[in-house]
Amino acid sequence: MATKSDTTSETKVFENVVCPFCATLCDDLKVHVTNNQVGKMINACNLSKGVFQNAHKDWTTPMIDGKQVEYDHAVEEAAQILAKANNPLIYGLAATDVEAQKKCIELADLIGANLDNASSV
Fold it and tell me: Is 3 helix (H, G, I), strand (E, B) or coil?
């Protein structure tokens, strides 16, 4: 919360936060938030820190090699990479909704990919 001068910010600390990003569901995270940005985290693994601390970023902009591209170009590039892959892997999905997981299973079947999730780590 900003002060009257709007030059300093108050840090809020949330305790016993549950991390949903793998099957462990750690429920003892302590999360410090300033200006709606996650900062210091206690009892968090690298996966948890990475996801919580980068949640504010715009991951909806399609990019190739760090450069913004049109969606059609990004999809075509991804399709080419998958088509050329000898042993494709679809991994993660811990924070993915059921409908998206179904689509990943369909894609894995289509391209002969291995499918795994974060709980296997």
Answer: coil
Tell me the per-residue pLDDT of 92-101, one tens digit each, with 9 for 90 and over: 887 788 899 9
For 6-39, what is each residue's pLDDT tens digit?
A: 456 899 999 999 998 877 889 999 999 999 899 9
DSSP per residue, 4-70: TTSSSBPEEEEEEEPP-SSTT----EEEEEETTEEEEEES--HHHHHHHHTTTS---S-EETTEE--
Instruction: Give the residue extent of every domain in the chain.
Output: 11-53, 63-120
Query: Is the pLDDT assigned to residue 75 strictly greater than 80?
Result: yes
